[in-house]
Design goal:
heterodimer, A: mainly beta, 6-stranded mixed beta sheet, 4-stranded antiparallel beta sheet, 12 strands, globular, B: 7-stranded mixed beta sheet, 11 strands, about 50% strand
């Protein structure tokens, strides 16, 4: 079945470091791909999305490119801030079931001042 | 601009007790979902609804029931709570997909439930 695999955390970085959180997926057809972010004590918020191959989603300095050939959607940011500390979830919406989203297990990111 | 509102935010139950979690959305969304979030397991779909009066099972439906009597509300019930149901529960909603897969879900802030 469809699934999402993302790198396990926690990930700890210093402020202004580069960030990559790996995400790969298994799905039939052409799913839509998402990154959600969860700040402490809050629900998930959409960070960015991409709906077809080679699309690049971007928001708040974060980027991710939909790579069909490698079935990947890695999250990147060139210079992280303390305020980026949160849990990040990679997710996909299957082509065959538009009403559902399948989430990865989440990656906790901590940024040191 | 409330979005998705969940009540209560915290609750402690004893094994065998029952309770209902309420989710309300003011965005006129057709689809609503209930998830549970457990450490290291991401979010798992319990039940979902694609419209008023309809519900469907998700990945982990056992021990839970749901109702969608009004479009804006989606209730999650625990008939006889068990310690394994200790978790954080999230409600989400999204607009009618219209056959598309690119509509994100909007989440509430969660309900932290402990079963003793």
């Amino acid at each position: 079945g469809d699934s999402v695999t993302q790198m396990e955390g926690p990930v700890t970085l210093s402020e202004e470091a580069c960030l990559t959180i790996n995400c790969t997926y298994t799905a039939t057809g052409y799913p839509s791909l998402f990154w959600y972010v969860q700040y402490p004590g809050e629900g998930l918020q959409l960070l960015l999305k991409a709906t077809k191959a080679d699309d690049k989603g971007s928001n708040k300095g974060f980027e991710a490119t939909y790579r069909k050939e490698t079935t990947s959607f890695h999250l990147e940011k060139g210079s992280v801030q303390v305020s980026d500390s949160a849990v990040y979830f990679c997710a996909l919406s299957p082509y065959s079931s538009a009403s559902k989203i399948i989430f990865g297990s989440g990656t906790r990111l901590s940024i040191r001042p | 601009n409330a979005g998705v509102t969940q009540t209560p935010k915290f609750r402690v139950l004893k094994t065998g007790q029952s309770m209902t979690l309420l989710c309300a959305q003011d965005m006129n969304h057709e689809y609503m979902y209930w998830y549970r979030q457990d450490p290291g397991m991401g979010l798992r779909l319990i039940h979902y609804s694609v419209g008023e009066g309809t519900t469907a099972k998700g990945e982990v439906p056992d021990g839970y029931n749901v109702s969608r009597l009004k479009k804006q509300n989606f209730l999650l019930g625990l008939e006889s709570a068990a310690p394994s149901q200790t978790s954080v529960y999230f409600c989400a909603s999204s607009p009618n997909q219209g056959g598309k897969t690119n509509q994100p879900q909007h989440f509430g802030d969660g309900t932290r439930l402990s079963i003793l």
